Amino acid sequence: MPSRVEPRQLAFALPHAESLTRDNFLEGPANAAGLALVDSWPEWPNRVMLLVGPEGSGKSHLAAIWAEQAGARSISAHALTAAAVPAALATGALVVEDLNPTDFDERALFHLMNLAREDEAFVLITARVPPSALQIELRDLRSRLRAVPTVSLLPPDDALFRALIVKFCADRQLAIDESVVSYLANRIERSYAAARRAVELLDTEALRQGRPVTRALAAELLRDA
Fold first, then answer.
1. Which of 1, 9, 107, 153 could be joined to 57 by an S-S link, Cβ 3.0–4.6 Å?
2. 3-class state of residue 131 by DSSP
């Protein structure tokens, strides 16, 4: 009689809600300057400000907090067109998310910055790299962007890094103990993106294997990482 083969559990990539409120923001030395920028509005040194930081460092969270305070609309940099600029600035405040070095319309952004100055509107631009790293062909835009005050988010310190791991697990409703947090904090690269990827991997494999998230599971998955 053939042996019974147990069905393999499938893991489905379901969306996980992430709270972007002020109360849910994890504060630390790494993001203190960004939080100070949001809290100091409308007393900004310039109507247009640039928030720069690595992937997952909280730029979108800070932008969401500011948008709530300022009544700002939000648009991805790659979706910005010259025709869309007037409507985007209709509330007098705008978030331009993820200014990528190669994927945006230079003339649309230049038009936005000019109109924001004329209308005395506020604009918060987020990016992973500073203006000096952007390959901009339009000379006037290049000089204008490099004159924009930049606030940088830094890599997380140990306390913030551990808190991030806990938060990412909480966002996925994962129950973990201190041993898992300590193992991850000492084993993976100390970056926002690495913490998010590690928690996502743990969640996916725990569901697929029908196991709780434990230090043993983390060690199995990250042994060769």
1. 153
2. helix
192: helix, strand or coil: helix
Q: Give dist(CA 50, CA 133) in Å, integer.
A: 13
What is the mean pLDDT of the segment spanning 89-99?
Answer: 97
Phi, psi for residue 49 in degrees, rounded to 5: -130, 150
**Nearest residue to 127 (alpha-carbon basis) of 61, 75, 55, 192:** 55
| CA–CA gap between residue 57 and residue 62 (Å, rounded) | 10
Residue appearing with tokens 């940099």: 77
In terms of Cβ atoms closer than 10 Å to its own Cβ (0-12, 13-18, 19+), residue 158 is: exposed
pTM of the model: 0.83
Q: Give the C-alpha separation, 123 to 72, whole Å.
A: 9
Domains along the chain with CATH numbers:
29-152 (3.40.50.300), 158-222 (1.10.8)
Contact predicate 131/50, CB 8 Å: yes
Other C-beta atoms closer than 10 Å to the C-beta of 194 total: 19
